[in-house]
Fold:
Amino acid sequence: MLQVHMSEAEVAANFEAALEKVRQGLEVIVEHEHQPIAVLRAAEPPRRKISECIAMLPADSTATIDGHFAADVEAAVGAHR
Structure:
């Protein structure tokens, strides 16, 4: 992940700018006297178990768990990283 370094004073003076960098996908390293003291990064999205996903399918769904299911899930996860 790309990082940007900001001083404690810069973040305090313009927190909105620091959050905008996070929204853009950057990690903000907050420093005091050139020493890192905090990291601002995007929150991780909530994760669901496969059983929860299956329970959410409509009753008339034709989705199946076959021999290729694990590879399909792996490909889907890889596409979102």
